[in-house]
Amino acid sequence: MRKFIIKRLLISAVILVIVSFLIYVLMRCLPTSYLEDVARQKSMQPGSKSFEEWMAQLSATYGMDKGILQGFLSWAGRALRGDFGDSWKWTVPVIEKFKDSVWISFVMGGIAFILEILIAIPLGIIAATKQYSKTDYTITVVALACFSLPTFFFASLMKLVFSVKLGWFDLGGLVGRNYHRLSAAGQFMDKANHLVLPIITLVVISIGSLMRYTRTNMLEVLNADYIRTARAKGLAESKVIYKHAFRNTLIPLVTMLGSSLPGLFAGALITETLYSIPGIGYVSFQSMISGDIPFSMFYLVFMSVLTLLGNLISDILYAVVDPRVRIS
Fold first, then answer.
1. pLDDT tens digits for range 203-219
2. What pTM does this model have?
3. I need a labelling partner for 22 at 20 to 30 A (CA). Which of 11, 130, 213, 267 fits?
4. Which is nearest to 243 in space by CA: 257, 258, 265, 226?
């Protein structure tokens, strides 16, 4: 196991370097640039220098006057020391802006992820054990409906019903107007209240695929020969399903859930935008469309690290959920 992990980490390091370089090249080829916007604004001021002069000065300040390879090596050297520079759009250090926004998305994504597992997997198992029954058809219809719902439509519907019609929640934002007047407990409840609708939206639009995935894999396992043998031996149906069948269903589920790790930090761009939540998804999108290379580079490389880590965790969990699988 130790040799496998070390080998995978070394391979992941090589992949990360290649991916980081490709991301840097793409960032340098963006059709828009924050530097161009700043240079254009400054050149329009009375008695100011020309656009070209401002561009040359700003490019030298931020190291954009170097070649792609030299610029990447310079960025990588600073990144290894934990220095990712200042965000051009948000005018604060990249790490500081990242910390301010990522935990909002992580809380939303983490709660939604846990609820998704608690709801979708049991319903998928029930649908598989009661194949072609009314229960199975009902769960299948609900799963297909959730899977087909566009995020913007469902979020708008939730806001219309629970915010406009019933008035239970605010239309958007992370805090209310009286947030700073509340006590610590009141501020916590105010934020929690504003996250209810976004979390429900994330759960509803994501449980459909996991329910169908669980049902399909469970049906394959239930039709296996060893399941029929277990039933022939007189084992209780609950023991057959939850001890023998579900354990083997976990293998494909682990792959799916392990790859979901980056999603906890990636943020939900559409949901965060519709509910005006300043999470990492919304912040990173605004950074990319404005040509904020320092923040975009950090965010994309960070997501690459999480993706590689998620794949490694999935491989290791194979041996945990199924003793027949050996890393060697």
1. 998 898 889 888 988 88
2. 0.78
3. 267
4. 226
